[in-house]
Amino acid sequence: MGRLTIQPLAVRAVPDPNNPGQIQVQVALGAGAQALTINGIVLNVLIGVDRWTAESLRAQSLQVPNPSPFSAMVDTGASGLALDNSIIQALNLTRRGLVRVHTASGSRLANLYVVSLSFPATELRSYDVVRATEVDLSAQPFKCLIGREIMANWHVHYNGQTGAISISD
Amino acid sequence: MTFEEDMEYLNSIKEELAKEHKGKFVLIKDKQNRGIFSSFEDAHKEALRLFGVVDVVIAQIGLEEPLNYIASAV
């Protein structure tokens, strides 16, 4: 069982009333909650080729791409893992079919891939082989959506008042 | 053969496959049915064994397409 806790601590610089021309660093109460409201739950993840693809590449004496770090948003509105095209290009992933996806702009077919997913610096369970759908997140600060297929293994506590998040599995 | 041709081939045979293999997974490459599998993962492993790291089509047979809803994407 793993656990990840994010307890935001924000500070701000303000003029020091006792020392003109100097600044004072203060804890910014409420800033963590504000950040959570604006950004949502954003985690650092490592995404790589899946275990069996890695074995196949090694068997052919081909280079296995190292897992790469990306920002991922936990999205209860997504049914499964979804990746921006930049990740697919970086890992040189091969397609495993097409799936129909429903987004805010309508329904369309999207490429299906298989990847590995892990959560560095946490004890949350890693996934050696997980299906992922291609989506366009080019305009977003995160490049991956973690949907309900992964969340099905989690207990998530979201404190919107303090900005604290904890995830355990 | 291209990935798109393999998708077309899947569409041409999926009704026939559904008569005997509903719920299972078919692996298609070069417009040929390469096997029926109990899980997506098994089909993926077999695709790697047969063809290496290339595009293939793996599809579940005869079930309604699962709802893949992605609220954050446009």
What would you say this structure looks like, in words?
The complex is a heterodimer of chains A (169) and B (74). With 169 residues, chain A is α+β, with helices and mostly antiparallel strands. In chain A, the strands form three sheets. Chain A has a six-stranded mixed β-barrel. A three-stranded antiparallel β-sheet of chain A has the order 1-12-11. In chain A, strands 2-3 form a two-stranded antiparallel sheet. Chain A has four helices and twelve strands, in the order βββαβαββαββββαββ. Helices cover 17% and strands 44% of the residues of chain A. Chain A has helices spanning 31-39, 51-59, 85-91, 148-151, and strands spanning 3-6, 11-15, 23-27, 42-49, 68-74, 81-84, 98-103, 106-118, 127-135, 144-146, 155-159, 164-168. Chain B is an alpha+beta fold and 74 residues long. Chain B has one domain (3-60). In chain B, strands 2-1-3 form a three-stranded antiparallel β-sheet. In chain B, a hairpin with a 2-residue loop joins strand 1 (25-29) and strand 2. The relative contact order of chain B is 0.23. Strand 7 (98-103) of chain A pairs parallel with strand 4 of chain B, so a sheet runs across the interface.
Helices and strands in order, then pairings?
The complex is a heterodimer of chains A (169) and B (74).
Chain A: E1 3-6, E2 11-15, E3 23-27, H1 31-39, E4 42-49, H2 51-59, E5 68-74, E6 81-84, H3 85-91, E7 98-103, E8 106-118, E9 127-135, E10 144-146, H4 148-151, E11 155-159, E12 164-168
Parallel strand pairs in A: 5-10, 6-9
Antiparallel strand pairs in A: 1-12, 2-3, 4-5, 4-8, 6-10, 7-8, 8-9, 11-12
Chain B: H1 3-21, E1 25-29, E2 32-37, H2 40-51, E3 57-60, E4 68-70
Antiparallel strand pairs in B: 1-2, 1-3
How many β-strands of chain A, per DSSP? 12
Measured between the Cα atoms of the first and last residue of chain B, the distance is: 31 Å
Largest interface between protein chains, with number of residues from each side: A-B, 39 and 27 residues
**What's the level 1 CATH class of chain A?**
Mainly Beta
Radius of gyration of chain B: 13 Å
Give helix and strand order of chain A, one letter per element, not per position: EEEHEHEEHEEEEHEE
Total strand segments of chain B: 4
Helix/strand-derived category of chain B reads alpha+beta
Strand order, largest beta sheet of chain B = 2-1-3
Helix content of chain B: 40-55%
Global outline of chain A = elongated
User: How much helical structure, as a percent, in the residues of chain A?
Assistant: 10-25%
Name the CATH homologous superfamily of chain A: Acid Proteases
